Every structure is written in structure tokens, then in C-alpha cells.
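Aim 2 progress update. The chain analyzed this quarter is reproduced below.
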Amino acid sequence: MLLSTGSNPEGHGKNAAPGPRDEPLLVADGIAKSFNGVPALRDGRLVLKRGTVHALCGGNGAGKSTFLNIVMGLLHRDEGSIRIDGMAVDFRSAADALRHGVTIITQELSPVPEMTVAENIYLGREPKIGGLVVDFPKMRQAAKRLLDDLEFDVPVGARMRDLSLAQIQLVEIAKALSHRADIVIMDEPTSAIGEHEVHILFNALKRIKARGSAIIYVSHKLTEIFEIADEYTVFRDGRFIESGAISSIDRNHLVTQIVGHEVKTVEKGKPNEGAPILLEVRSLSRGSHFKNISVTVAAGEVLGIYGLLGSGRTEFLETIYGIHAPTAGDVFLDGARVDPGNPKKCIQRGMAMVPEDRKDTGLVLCASIAHNIALSSLALRAVSGFVRRKAEAAATDRMMRLHRIKAASPNVPVETLSGGNQQKVVFARCLLTNPRLLICDEPTRGIDEGSKQEIYAFLREFAAKGNGVLVVSSEAPEILQISDRIAVFRQGRLDHVVDGHETTQQMLTDLAS
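Predicted C-alpha cells:
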């Protein structure tokens, strides 16, 4: 069990007595699933032991989500078997899985914005007085005990709408863990949180392991996998590839098994010392978000921005791009002042932005690839304001080939694409505006290693043409791999600017904390 009974007012959790510790807790074998005759999963296999973290690895489209949905009862398998504590199970719903001690933390956040943290955690299982009236004090106390036990710094009385994305993610994690499940499935649980919160989460996972529960952990962040996982399983193209102890392999081996071939790491070139200044930010401030920040980006340079969540990184990027108006300071592009608070004019002046959350602010999910790519390009519009369809089709075809976007047609909805291909659509839309400065906020969040390396290569190639890149990432290895210089933000201020060629990961994290 995860927590004391007091942390879960309704006491949901597994009822069956657990098996011996040395026996597998879950065994899935030969799992297969097709949609309209097209196989999504051909041979899913996984053996989960008690008291372990088991990393399920694979690229976008490998079959991981289908496999997890089957384990959770959200999809019904066509073939194969699942056994928990030696007993065959066939869950028909997530509620059915939960009754047997299986819960999931998904990467798709689903808070109720107007409710408090405590109300979200215990939604649908609120403690009652006399079975009728919600016992709010008891619920708040239970939520506080839960969050304190996990060491999550989130106020239980705050409304979800007032929380940061990282805090919302922590609440979703706490909600899933409050069920005291024996099997916890975590699908990209750190996609919206920084390294400090990841450290806190991993400490909580270690305590969960020590209590005999087991975790299936899915992440594209290989650094996390090697830090927290005990064992791993790789899926590729819907099939089981291999499994073993994480201590028996290295990063290169895992990447090769995930992708199916050796992946070449993108190398940084040497910076051009005499390059002209492309972007100049002078004493920029925005209320309490960040204060008095001055940086430059030279033509041909990738400037990384690194800092803990809440350090003002995203707000800084959004202010440069005109989403927010600054309270003080100026932004210059190619020597000319950029009008504050006007994204349309920023695009016209030569800026483009890849936002932090592609599904919320980067894409129109129900619209086609072609429509999404053409969204920001004024060049595709006639004087009347209507889109010139032939020009749109030609531009879309060119961008899909350039960015290697895998899809049956440019007319398919973006929501049907993998995370990596969705992100490539965002980049294609940005590039179609012919920008001089590309602003990227967490550009590889939630995508596989192969797609990451493609994006790194694109950023370096874009800069090598005399353009500039301003990029925020919560992953220190990523920011070190792609940046010529790194601006370290701390509590809304620019603390240091360091050479990306000479800085180590430890130095970077020490500066940011």
C-alpha cells in the first residue's frame, strides 16, 4: 500500500491479498490490437516485479499507449493474456482496473479548473457526513497529508485554474497515487515539471517501491529512465524487442533498440565571433515575472535559456514574441525596435515561436496538417484574405518533405499524428513564415529520441544560415547539446551567461538552484 488509510477517505485500492514478493506482480504476454484491420500492437509483452520501476520504452507509434490502454481496461485486446498475482484478468474499464489495484497517470492533464486541489484529488470519492454531505475539512486534511507525504508543495485550498502547469501535473500525480494501487502506470509524468519537481517525484517513487508497489514508467527522457528504472522493455513498430536490467545496458544501446538503427548525435559547430547581433533585449521586465533582463543573440547562434520552473523563462520568451507587453525595456531585431505586445507584428518583423504546449496553443488538433502549416503564413493569402489553395498545397508538400512528417495525406487531422510528427508540423508552420529568429519553448517535450535528434539538427541548420534561435528547455543535457551560450535564469532574473561548449550538466544545475 502507498499511504496510510487516512490519506484516502474512501479507501479505494486492491482487495485481493498480494502474492509472494519474488513472484511477478503483472505478466502481459502476446498482446495484440488492430484498428480497422491495421495492427497497432502485434506482440506486447511485459513482466513487472514487485518493488520495481519498469521502464516501457519505444518511439512514437511503437504501441506503448495501446498496450497501456489495454492493461487499464480502456481498450479490449484482440489476442494475448494479462495476469496479476497469477490470476488472469480482462479489465473492461479503468474503474475495473482500479478495483484490482491498477491506476494510471497520463500525460494529458484533466483538472476541473474551478475546483480546489483537494476537490480534484478526491473527485467522485469525497468523504461524506452521514453519507450525504461532503466533509470538506476531512477531505482537505487527507489531501494535505497526501501532498506532505509526497513532498509536493501545492496548497490544498487553491483553485486549479490558479496553479502553474507544473503544479497541476503534481496534483494529477497525487490524485493517482491516492488510490493506494499496487500497480502504478506513469505515462510521461514529468512532461510539465522541472528538475527540482522530478527529484521530489523520484524520492516518492522510491518510497512507493519500498512498500512493495510496482511502477510501469514511460518517458522519452532517457536520463530519467537510467536514474529511476530497475528494468526496461522496448517496443518497436508494435512488437516486443527486448527486456532486461537497466544496469546491464548503456544509453546508446537503448536508443538503438528504440529507433531500430544507430542514431548520430547532433554536434555543435564553432561560433562565429564576428557575427552581427540579430536580437538585442535591453533591460526587459514584466511585473513580478522577470526583471531587468538584457541578452543578445548573434546571427548563427543558438542561445539556450535554463532555469527552474517559476524562474521566468516562458514569460520572457512570450514577452519577446509579443504575447505579453513588458512593463519596462525594449526588444530589437536586426537593429530595429519591435513593437511590444503584438505577435502579428513580431511575425511580420521575422519572429516565429514554437510554444510550450503544442496541443493547447501550437496546433488546431481537429484541423488538417495543411491548414495547420498554413496558419501563420500571410504569403498564402490573397488580397481578399482567403487562402490560395494551390499555394497552400505546394507549401504543405514542401514542408512535409523537408521536415519528414509521416502521414497518409496532408489532409488528415493533426490529432491523428504521433507527438513527434505533431511537433514537426509546428516547426513547419514557423519555417513557412521565413523567420530570422526562432523562439522555442520546450521544443522536444513528449517526443521520442529519433525525433529529438531531427529537431536538434534542424535548429543547428537554421542557425547556420545566419538566423538566430532562442530556446528554453528543462533538460540540462538537451540545452548543453544544442546551445552555443546558455543564459541561466533564477527567480525572475538573469543570473549567469555561460559558454555552452565549456559548461557541464552539474555546473548548470548548480547555477540554476
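The longest strand covers residues 24-35. DSSP finds 17 helices and 22 strands in the chain. These observations will guide the mutagenesis experiments scheduled for the next reporting period.
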